[in-house]
Amino acid sequence: MNHLSWSNVLRKRKEEPVKFSINQSELQDALAVVLKGIATRSTLPILSGIYLDAHNDNLTLQATDLELSIQFTIPALVEEEGRSVFPGKLFFDIVKNLPDAAVHVETLDEAAVIMCDASSFSIKTLDAEDFPGFPHVDTQQAISIPFSQFSSMVKRVARVVSKDESRAILTGVLITLEGATLKMVATDSYRLAITEAQLDEPAAEGFQAVIAGSFLQELASLNRTDDPLTIALAENQIVVTYHDTVFINRRIEGNFPNYRQLLPDSYNTRVQLNVSHLVSGVKRTSILGQQSSPVKFAIDVDSQTVQLSAAAQDVGSAQETLTCQGEGENVEIAFNYAYVLDGLGSVGTDSVYLEVQTGMKPGIFKAAEGENFLYLVMPVRIS
Q1: Mind listing the pLDDT tens digit for each residue in 177-202?
Q2: How far apart are CA 31 and CA 96, in angstroms?
Q3: Sheet arrangement for strand 142-146
Q4: How far apart are CA 154 and CA 159, in angstroms?
Q5: Residue 3 confidence class, pLDDT cut points 50, 70, 90
Q6: Are 59 and 18 in contact (CB under 8 A)?
Q7: Helical H runs in 158-274?
Q8: Class at the top of the CATH hierarchy for domain 6-130
């Protein structure tokens, strides 16, 4: 005969039952966002869960890996108010595969039942008492920007951030506000991207933070609207609010490189090129080269042409001539072709300017008028 010990009695959780209904597609969209915050490699099982709080006809979902915390609030038909923690990925996988109809969720003790049309699932839940509370952060400065504009800016610069975790500062994007000009800067020490936008409303003076490029890319991939996104700074954290979603993440500590000293005051050669022709030419020319093989730009101002060329030992060579509008001196400069294509992929105008001082100094690609985007690339030595 098994006797219940006091520890067994105490271990049995007493949670208020939760009961709510919500549309499948709305729940799936919310879970897809919150899931980005769960811990994937933690030794704490609770961090792999999604916290649910059903209250006042709202469902609040939370997840955290103790660095990034996400909270998403959506309307729901709440029949019994309460809270619970569901296994995050499992809950999302179930909801994602349900038909687009009303989803009914009910918890009892240590399990939850999820029903939709003819489907029914029963899953074990986690203890809501073990879930870390959502951080309450005192913010000082804040800026607001239309989400579509924010997303475009991030996509231009975030691909340039370093993937080398040993230089953490370079894995982030520097965001500053100077007057009404919002600026985003990223570099991996081989190239540098800068984009700017004018904010309509006056905002926080001295706003400056380095924010993880991967986090900004996650934000930029949210459903695109013209609604405002707000970024607020705390002492060592950043708070981002968009619609009914709040993201809290750590700022990257350290000093961002002084990128301004890399930007020359003048150029000796400047050419204007058609972006799509240049992209196609670089892609064709680089076929012969290996991944890191450089593409040489031979700028001839007299004939108003740029000859692209690449050569691979024991393979062969390729050349292509593009027309341009140029001024200054004839010059040859070579770049890693993948870096060039990355930068050109962020140019939204039909034409691009290439400014060069010498073949041994960085080349600068600038979007044509109407778009503030600059992309600096370190040259490759031509043998």
Answers
A1: 988 899 999 999 999 999 999 888 76
A2: 9
A3: 82-87, 49-55, 58-64, 69-75, 245-250, 237-242, 228-233, 142-146
A4: 9
A5: low
A6: no
A7: 213-220
A8: alpha beta
Yes or no: say if 283 and 309 are a contact pair by the CB < 8 Å rule: no
Instruction: Return left, alpha or beta for 202; rule: phi > 0 is left, psi -120 to 50 is alpha, else beta.
Output: beta
**What residue has token string 């996104």?**
229
Give the distance, in angstroms, between the CA of residue 127 and the centroid of all CA atoms in the same chain.
32
Q: Which amino acid is at 365?
A: F
pTM: 0.89
- What CATH number does domain 263-377 carry, 2.40.30.20, 3.10.150.10, 1.10.540.10, 3.40.50.300? 3.10.150.10
- Give dist(CA 379, CA 383) in Å, integer: 12
- The CATH code of domain 142-258 reads 3.10.150.10
Q: How many CA atoms lie within 13 A of 349 on its CB side?
A: 16
Start-end of CATH 3.10.150.10 domains in the chain = 6-130, 142-258, 263-377
Amino acid 36 reads: K
Counted residue by residue, the chain has a size of 383
